[in-house]
Specification:
By secondary structure, this protein is mainly alpha-helical. It has three domains: about 120 residues, Rossmann fold, CATH 3.40.50; about 100 residues, Alpha Horseshoe (Serine Threonine Protein Phosphatase 5, Tetratricopeptide repeat); about 170 residues, DNA Cyclobutane Dipyrimidine Photolyase, subunit A, domain 3 (Orthogonal Bundle), CATH 1.10.579.10. About 45% of the residues lie in helices and about 5% in strands. Strands 3-2-1-4-5 form a five-stranded parallel sheet, sandwiched between helices.
Length: about 425
């Protein structure tokens, strides 16, 4: 029997199905499945992400017959040490395009005595592949989307059926009580009907979104698997937007904290203070905003339409820099993805790569009335307002507010001030 051992180092690809890196690793002989708990990434993660990661690792290990090896420490030290332990002929990975991930992989590669083999990526079309007719990357989403569709992607590949998983000493998996993993991701996607996505995707009061952002974040499913046979253009656009954000972050790694449009560096922002704390705790006095922030605190998730509204409120009603909101989201969201999170915040703040005008300022009351027309979403997350029927929940100051706080801002005045600050950087 072939005794050559390869190492499959799992990161953002916690699955066996449609994972070309696993197939490459298995072609070389026995495979040692490895996951490194990086203290840097673990420390930056909030409880929701830690919980889900732990559960996903348990699921992955079960699919490998309980042989996933988990080690803690700096990957530049741990991965070469494990490769030496098993005399690995090669270490296989799915390419990571995040700024830290790329730097880490260069360090690991330099420390290894065997090749580091990159196969595949977390995207249907890897960052850097899409170029315009002049060979330059796209700065605006719509032409990128058209080129992305024209480029296309490979069909999903099946999981290997005959992998011999090698064994090595492993640390205990971290505790996790949520349900997660490849099997659950596949089942969720197969049971979801995207036909009504375009019509209902903006309604947080309805259970109409797929909630696939979490499996995509951890690589429990690959976007190719979701795109296979997908007819909804609205849903394909969402997957393409995720890949557009990744493409932008590869080219502009500073976009995680710095505006893509340099003139916005001159924007005057207020320091985060009591108003910022009220925003974080869901006590702003604007029900649609507060419902979203309370949903985030309770579940590690927030409906996408609500994310846009709460982000606009922080940046343009409270005049706090978007980077503070982006950091809070990354710490709080189970599906927190650096590229998508930062570039979506920039989209709302008006300083991103798209053509969205800065003066698009969401009215938090009007947004609630439009997308939560019966007040069900607000009442679900704000028990203080459950005594208010229908649309009354969106304007409690017109009725009986009970213990619910008064609004901390005047939206009309805040909007004028946001536009004044925008005009100041244009002059």
């Amino acid at each position: 029997m072939d005794t050559v051992t390869t190492v499959m180092w799992f990161r953002r690809d916690l699955r066996l199905t449609d994972n070309p890196a696993v197939l490459d690793a298995a072609a070389g002989g026995r495979v040692l499945g490895l996951f490194v708990l990086d203290p840097l990434l673990w420390g930056r993660s909030g409880d929701p992400r830690r919980e889900h990661l732990a559960a996903s690792l348990r699921s992955l290990s079960e699919s490998m017959g309980g042989r996933l090896v988990v080690r803690r420490g700096d990957p530049a030290v741990v991965v070469p040490a494990v490769a030496d332990e098993v005399a690995a002929s090669s270490v296989h990975i799915c390419a990571d395009y995040a700024p830290y991930g790329q730097q880490r992989d260069v360090q690991v590669e330099a420390a290894l005595k065997c090749p580091l083999v990159r196969t595949g990526s977390p995207y249907a079309v890897a960052p850097g592949r899409i170029r315009n007719q002049h060979g330059r990357p796209y700065q605006v989403f719509t032409p990128y989307f058209k080129a992305w569709l024209a480029h296309g992607w490979r069909q999903p590949v099946a999981a290997p059926t005959d992998v011999t998983w090698a064994e090595a000493p492993s640390e205990e998996l971290p505790a996790g009580s949520v349900e997660a993993g490849e099997g659950m991701a596949l089942e969720r996607w197969r049971s979801y009907d995207p036909a009504g996505y375009e019509a209902e995707r903006d309604r947080p009061d309805l259970d109409s979104t797929s909630r696939m952002s979490i499996p995509l974040k951890y690589g429990e499913i690959h976007p190719r698997t979701m795109l296979a046979g997908l007819e909804s253009e609205a849903y394909r656009r969402e997957l393409a937007w995720r890949e557009f954000c990744a493409d932008l972050l590869v080219r502009y790694p500073q976009a995680a904290w710095k505006p893509l449009r340099p003139e916005f560096e001159r924007t005057a922002y207020d320091e985060p203070g009591s108003a910022y704390e009220a925003w974080r705790s869901g006590r702003t006095g604007f029900p649609f905003v507060d419902a979203g922030m309370r949903q985030l605190a309770a579940t590690g998730l927030m409906h996408n339409r609500v994310r846009m509204v709460v982000a606009s409120f922080l940046v343009k009603d409270l005049h706090v820099h978007w980077k503070y909101g982006a950091r809070w989201f990354m710490r709080s969201l189970t599906d927190g993805d650096l590229a998508s999170n930062a570039l979506n915040w920039q989209w709302v703040a008006g300083c991103g790569a798209d053509t969205a005008p800065y003066f698009r300022i969401f009215n938090p009351v009007a947004q609630g009335l439009k997308f939560d027309p019966h007040g069900d979403y607000v009442r679900r997350w704000i028990p203080e307002l459950r005594h208010l029927a229908g649309k009354q929940a969106h304007e409690p100051w017109e009725h009986d507010t009970g213990d619910y706080p008064a609004p901390i801002a005047d939206h009309a005045e805040a909007r004028r001030e946001a536009l004044r600050r925008y005009d100041a950087i244009r002059s």
